[in-house]
Amino acid sequence: MYRQQRLAEGRATQLRNKCGEGLEIPGKDYVQEVTKAGEGLWVILHLYKQGTPLSSLRHRLFSGLARKFPDVKFIKAISTTCTPNYPDRNLPTVFVHVEGAIKAQFTGPLVFGDMNLTIDELEWKLSESGPIKTDLEENPEKPVTDAWSRGATPCP
């Protein structure tokens, strides 16, 4: 009994450690790598278009998070290989899956902010949907304030 438990734990550890790589998948592997990823395994899928600066930034940030959270499967795919005719206006898109179900979806360029997005901000946002347990104590994103909210008066 104990031996079987230890073997199962070892297999689970191997699977988790494989996840921390930030894999690129072709569309034909979507079902296997995302929908059938494994029991209790969170999958974060980043759909992107090659050659866009925002996608490049997100790749770097997701790679950092993949190393920090090796028990979560971070993968990326070119949008049109997974979904033909996927609209560019929806990119980048991030899907959060567990056990074949979509638990969260972040669509479009402004959901996570612009090119000033930090790894801590991305970590916080993803932690709100469940796949990662952050050690951050508060939201690192600074609230946006404008002149009206500070009580400025309109120009004559």
UniProtKB/TrEMBL annotation:
Keywords: Phosphoprotein
Region named Disordered: 130-156
Highest taxon of source: Eukaryota
Keyword Methyltransferase part of the UniProt annotation: no
InterPro entries per the UniProt record, alphabetical: Phosducin-like_chap/apop_reg (IPR051498), Thioredoxin-like_sf (IPR036249)
Record flagged with keyword Phosphoprotein: yes
CDD domains: Phd_like_VIAF (cd02988)
Gene3D superfamilies cross-referenced by the UniProt entry: Glutaredoxin
Biased composition (Basic and acidic residues): 134-144
The protein's name: Phosducin-like protein 3
Organism: Myotis davidii (David's myotis)
